[in-house]
C-alpha cells in the first residue's frame, strides 16, 4: 500500500512540475498598456463656452472635441485601471502628454506627479515619448526641460539617449527593447521631423538590439502608415514623410510593432516590405476624447494579442468640486455612461468646428471679391442641407423629392448628425458601416442633393441674377432650379456626370467607413516576433500581392456599383 501511495505521490509531483513548466512556457513575455495623446489641461475654475454651441448639455464643447476640464480625472481613472489590472506590467505613452505643454510647464508637472504616484504605488514603469504639443526648440518647455520633468518615465531606464532630441532606448523584459523615437519637428507645429540622422539612429539601435538577443519595438508620435484614405495627401502633417520607404526600412531592420498617436483615431494597419517583413502601426486615439480608449497587449514570441479598453467613469464629485458650473444633468449623464457623454461632446465639437469653417471670414474671401457671391451661395446651400431638419414639412426629405431623390427614414434629425456619426466611428476604430447602410445612403444622397440644388442655386443667384429679376416680374422665381427639378422628374434623380462624381469619391467613402485591411483596430491577434522565417516571408509577399489586387478589385466593384446600380 505504501508503495502505491509513494508511486502516486511521485507521479503527482512530476505532473505538477510539467504543468508549471507548461504554464511558464505560455506566460506572456510582455504585458502592458498603450495610451496616447492625453492632452492634459489645467482645469478651469469654472466652465466657459469655447464657441456658440446651442446645446444645453454640450454648450462648452471645443473645436478639437477634447474633454479638457475632465482630462485630469480621465487620466486618473486610466492609471487606476492599469494599477488594478494584473495584465498590465508597464505603460507606454506615445506623446502629446500635455495639451499646451510647449507653453505651460505646469501641465507637464501635474501629469508627471500623477505618473510618479502611480509608479510608487504599483512599481509599474511608465515610458513616454515627446509629441508635437509637448516641447519645442524655442518654447517654454525645451527638450532639456521635457527630459528633466519626465526623467523617471523612461530616461532613468535608458540604455542610450540622444542629446539633440528626446529619443532613447530601454529594455522591456528579457527579450525586447523599446526604441522611443522623437519624430517631431523642432519648431513646426504638427509636421514630422524625420531626418536621415534619426533614421540612422533607429537602424543602429535595432541592430544593437539584435546583437543583444532582443526584439526591437518602436514608439513615436507621428503615424508610420496611413490611417485615413490618402492620409499622406489629406492629413500630411500626421504621418511621417516617405512613409512607405521608412516602413520598409523599419520592417527590414527587424521592427514588427510601432506604437503611434497624433491622428486621434483607434486604427491598426500593416505593411509588408519587398523582402516579406511585416510591420504593424498601432495608432492609438486620444485618451481624453471619444472613445476614451487605450489598448492592452500580451506578447509571446509566437503571437501578439491586443484588446481595446475604455475609460467609462470618473470621479464626478471631485470634478464638480474642482470646476464650477456643471449642471446636475451633466454629472448624472457622466455617471450613467462617460463614453456616451464623450460621444455627444465629440459630435457637438466637430459640428461647431466645421460650421465655423463654413463661414466666409474663415474661408478668407472678403465681400466684394470676384468669387464672393459664388462661394457664399454654395456654402450657404451646404449649411442649409446639413442644418435643416431631415424630415417633416419643409425638411430635406421634401426638398430631395423635388429632385427625384429619396432620403430614407431614420432616427437622425439633421445631416450634421449623420456626418458626425461617421466621424465618431473613425475615431472609435473597427468601422463596420456597409455601403448600403442607412448612414451611407443618406450621406450619398445628401451629396447628390448638394450637386443638384446647390449648383442650381449658384447658377440662378450668381450667373443668371439679371435674368431672374426680369422673370420674377412674370411670376417665375428662377430658371436653372426649375429646369433642374423638371429634368429630374423626367430623366431621373442623377445625371451621368453626377453618377461619375459620386463614383469617383465612393472608394474614399468606402475606405473611411469600412475597415477591411485584415487587421482589426481594437481586438485581435497577430503573429509574434519569433515566427519570422524565410518561408513565412515568402508567404507574406504572396499575401501582400493578393491583398493589393483584392483592394483594386474592391475599389472597382464599389465604383461600378455606384455607376450601374440604381441606388437612387
Mean pLDDT: 82
Strand order of the largest sheet: 4-5-6-7-8-10-9
Structural class: alpha/beta
The count of DSSP E runs of length 2 or more, i.e. the number of strands, is 13
CATH structural fold name of the largest domain: Purple Acid Phosphatase, chain A, domain 2
By CATH reckoning, the class of the largest domain would read Alpha Beta
Tell me what portion of residues adopts beta-strand conformation: 5-15%
* Number of helical stretches of at least 4 residues: 19
Termini Cα gap: 85 Å
Report the uncertain regions. 1-24, 458-464, 479-492
Shape label: globular
- Looking at this structure, what is the CATH superfamily of the largest domain? Metallo-dependent phosphatases
Structural domain count = 2
Examine the secondary-structure arrangement and name the CATH architecture of the largest domain: 4-Layer Sandwich
Please explain how this structure is put together:
With 568 residues, this protein is α/β, with parallel strands linked by helices. The radius of gyration is 28 Å and the shape is globular. Strands 4-5-6-7-8-10-9 form a seven-stranded mixed sheet. The protein has a six-stranded mixed sheet with strand order 3-2-1-11-12-13, with no helix packed on it. The chain has 19 helices and 13 strands. The chain has two domains: 29-334, Purple Acid Phosphatase, chain A, domain 2 (4-Layer Sandwich); 360-564, no CATH class. The longest helix has 31 residues, at 534-564.
